[in-house]
Amino acid sequence: MRFPVLLVAGLLAAPALSAQLSVPSGGQWMIEPAEHSGRVQPGKVQLNIRYGEGRHSSNWGRDVPLSDLVGLSTADMGGSGTTVHFKIVRSAGTLDCEGWFRGGSGSGHFTYQPNSDFVAQLAKRGISAPTGWDQFEMTMAGVGLELLDELKRQGYDTPTAGQLARMATHGVDLEYVRELGARGYHLKNPESLVRMRDHGVDSEFIASLDSAGYKNLSAEDLVRVRDHGVDGDYISAMKARAYQFRDVESLVRMRDHGVDPDFIESLNAAGYKSLGAEDLVRLRDHGVDGEYIADLKELGYTPSNLEELVVSRDHGVDASYVRSLKEAGYENLSLSDLRRARDHGVTRGFIQRVKARGYGQPSLDEVIRLRDRGLE
Description:
The chain is of the alpha+beta class. The protein is 45% helix and 17% strand. The protein has 19 helices and seven strands. The protein has helices at residues 74-77, 116-124, 132-141, 145-153, 161-169, 174-182, 190-198, 203-211, 219-227, 232-239, 248-256, 261-269, 277-285, 290-298, 306-314, 319-327, 335-343, 348-359, 364-372; strands at 26-36, 39-51, 58-65, 69-70, 80-89, 93-102, 105-114. It has a seven-stranded antiparallel β-sheet. α3 runs parallel beside α5. The longest helix is centred in the C-terminal third of the chain and has 12 residues, at 348-359.
């Protein structure tokens, strides 16, 4: 679902400033053919509107039905330098547009006229008159009385004019409210709809969770899983690898720690299969992945105890370090010995310097003692 974008240089976040903003008497419009996946959409156009000046300038754009542009025909759009005059009529106000078209694209100017009857209709529904700016925003977003009536039908608290304008600028429209309602979400507080929309919770996302077996989640849970990147695809992919959870919190934790299907597959390929959720999280947190395990495996290290892998990784024992000590003549060291050597700062370079001073082929313990005594 596409929805309008209204950007007003940080001012939309402060509703108290709406009364101070100057309502534009007009602006510019641009129209191009609407496209989806590279194909022109019949009966639709891409409408972009610009208004305001300086840091208060704004752009609004969306695909709209051609029928929304009263007085504009496909013949007008296809002309060569054709002058046009049409209107964009909304419940809250009207944009009276003039300009020209050439080859399906056009541009021009508009004047804005607020609808006084809309204010009267709001009053009949218990809503005080909006500021001029709020009414303009509702005009731009196409907020109609149908939205108010739908909110009432679904048992929502009556919004203020400011809340209604906020809903408009955040993409909470009639379609969105109906879609959530059809899935059983009647949130009572209109601000909850804004929060859901801001966090990307829409009917498609809810449907993806439903199909993955997570139905009837609370509004807070929907926002939480969305924020943490848990969607139907992630859940299904984890299920396919035998990881199923009754609660969404476990899914969120796994996702937060970077445990995803690719990580699990890398461990499977390295021979570590069917690990518990906690083991997966611990390995991921400590940087133990399939590549790390495979590198150690190639060098002959295949510990059955996962803690050996975690501790070795934590101590900086990786394939390159193991190879460097092998090259210095220290073959077949245990992971425990390698960790001890690493902790004491034993490197290939240090070993070479020890040998150059006539120590021959000292044991690892001797090398560590020399290192501890400050031999450089």
